[in-house]
Write a structure and sequence with these properties.
188 residues, alpha+beta, five-stranded antiparallel beta sheet, three-stranded antiparallel beta sheet, N_methyl_site
Length: 188
């Protein structure tokens, strides 16, 4: 005996409509793989962003320190003490007087102390190899009284693996002292 099917009736009356377990497992597997790829890409972007931020922060801090060092050295009347880790300078002031300024690298910290006051820290955690060197007008190493240029090496580690430390190598003229040397007012 033949029965007529109604329009819209389920052609498989014994089966329930839906997905099979295999279909659900395949869909779940595809979703997990997609999320893993997206998570890896997000982690990679976050790491790259952190590295770029660390490098920019290092460059900014070193740039500020070099700017202040340059300002002091270009206003220096004379260097009185100079070593690889510190120097003492007599700095010309705007009012015509002079002040003593000490720049030093101790324990990885670059500090400036003016007039015997409290030290001002410009950089912390500098890598070994950071320091000062002193040159004559001809570029040879010099005693403090014969120095016309201070060579500054500042190496700022980024604190991140696989990232090259930021290094600043700058030679700053000691203008007033260089003029005294050129005029023969200082015996070298």
């Amino acid at each position: 005996m033949l029965t007529a099917q109604r329009a819209g009736a389920d052609p498989r009356p014994g089966d329930e409509a839906g997905f099979t377990l295999v279909e659900l497992l395949v869909t779940a597997l595809v979703a997990v793989i997609t999320l893993a790829i997206a998570g890896g890409a997000l982690e990679s972007m976050t790491t790259a962003s952190n590295r770029a931020t660390g490098a920019a922060t290092s460059m900014s801090a070193v740039s500020l320190a070099v700017s202040r060092l340059s300002s002091d050295l270009r206003s220096t009347h004379a260097l009185t003490v100079a070593s690889a880790t510190s120097f003492t300078a007599t700095v010309n002031q705007a009012d015509g007087t002079t002040a003593t300024v000490v720049w030093s690298i101790t324990g990885g910290d670059l500090t400036r102390t003016a007039g015997g006051g409290s030290p001002e820290t410009f950089l912390t955690g500098l890598a070994s190899g950071s320091g000062f060197a002193y040159d004559t007008p001809s570029g040879t190493p010099a005693a403090p009284s014969c120095t016309s240029r201070v060579v500054v090496d500042l190496i700022e580690p980024t604190g991140q693996t696989a990232v090259t430390p930021y290094q600043e190598h700058v030679s700053i003229a000691v203008t007033d002292q260089a003029m005294n040397i050129a005029e023969g007012n200082v015996s070298c």
